């Protein structure tokens, strides 16, 4: 499917979903200093050909403007003539879409995710045991244990992508960049939003549990 075959209303729906979730996440303080990025896929999925709308680089995500988003292809290249640049981390979105076929990917920065990624860096995963909100990730086993993968945070984004490829766990709809933030995805924008909210709860829970137990 070529980008020109995607219906206008599909593109408009993707932009509306991005606007809505951007406003919500901004109200929670998850986009400090223009950080974070959001994307929603449009049209059919093929690992070798897909398209998505993504937040433009360097924009204030606490306000809405006509220049907030653009559409890119599987290589992160703009599908339409534009002066906008996609988020610097678009290549990570590309790889997650390619590996999972997700419908949306949301990336935010929170203190808890950043702190936990460093606290558990040596084991390369944040462990979570038996917390109810694990069910928010579509994992329904009683007293489930999960390990949320952590990958390196290099200044050169292409260096991060191979670690994402290697560490991504299809059972866990999220991956953390060290001292940076969480990427969460889902079949659609609603599911990706639910997943990122569940992850953020889990990070705060683990942080408070670790501190309560005085672990070093």
TrEMBL record:
<comment type="function">
    <text>Catalyzes the dehydration of methylthioribulose-1-phosphate (MTRu-1-P) into 2,3-diketo-5-methylthiopentyl-1-phosphate (DK-MTP-1-P).</text>
</comment>
<dbReference type="InterPro" id="IPR017714">
    <property type="entry name" value="MethylthioRu-1-P_deHdtase_MtnB"/>
</dbReference>
<dbReference type="InterPro" id="IPR001303">
    <property type="entry name" value="Aldolase_II/adducin_N"/>
</dbReference>
<comment type="pathway">
    <text>Amino-acid biosynthesis; L-methionine biosynthesis via salvage pathway; L-methionine from S-methyl-5-thio-alpha-D-ribose 1-phosphate: step 2/6.</text>
</comment>
<keyword id="KW-0456">Lyase</keyword>
<feature type="domain" description="Class II aldolase/adducin N-terminal">
    <location>
        <begin position="16"/>
        <end position="207"/>
    </location>
</feature>
<dbReference type="InterPro" id="IPR036409">
    <property type="entry name" value="Aldolase_II/adducin_N_sf"/>
</dbReference>
<comment type="similarity">
    <text>Belongs to the aldolase class II family. MtnB subfamily.</text>
</comment>
<keyword id="KW-0486">Methionine biosynthesis</keyword>
<keyword id="KW-0028">Amino-acid biosynthesis</keyword>
<protein>
    <recommendedName>
        <fullName>Methylthioribulose-1-phosphate dehydratase</fullName>
        <ecNumber>4.2.1.109</ecNumber>
    </recommendedName>
</protein>
<feature type="binding site">
    <location>
        <position position="107"/>
    </location>
    <ligand>
        <name>Zn(2+)</name>
    </ligand>
</feature>
<keyword id="KW-0479">Metal-binding</keyword>
<dbReference type="Pfam" id="PF00596">
    <property type="entry name" value="Aldolase_II"/>
</dbReference>
<keyword id="KW-0862">Zinc</keyword>
<feature type="binding site">
    <location>
        <position position="109"/>
    </location>
    <ligand>
        <name>Zn(2+)</name>
    </ligand>
</feature>
